[in-house]
Amino acid sequence: MSDESIAARIERLVAEEGELRSSEQRDSVDEERLAEDRRRLSAVEVELDRCWDLLRQRRALRETGRNPDQAEARDAGTVENYLQ
Questions:
Q1: Which of 12, 13, 52, 67 has the fewest C-beta atoms lying within 10 Å of its C-beta?
Q2: Where are the domains of the chain?
């Protein structure tokens, strides 16, 4: 996966995140739809974190003269549990 395709995926996910946040407000009176919006929003946020992580890995490999194609997408548990 190229940097450009990762960036395009990030853009699509950010757009979906915005739509879901708007839906959350509209669906606030319907608890079932609101819960569905929140589940999807959570999944989108995790996928965004995974994409950003992969993009950072590729850039770091490139900056150190290594092949960026060696970067691998990490599982959600790993990405979500990084120490800040």
A1: 67
A2: 3-80
Q: Do residues 51 and 6 touch, judged by C-beta distance below 8 A? A: yes
Q: Looking at this protein, which amino acid is placed at residue 5?
A: S
pLDDT above 70 as % of the chain: 98
Distance between CA atoms of residues 9 and 77, nearest Å: 20
- pTM of the full predicted structure? 0.87
**Backbone dihedral region for residue 67 (phi beyond 0: left; psi -120 to 50: alpha; all else: beta):** beta
* Ordered alpha helix ranges (H), 1-84: 3-26, 31-63, 76-80
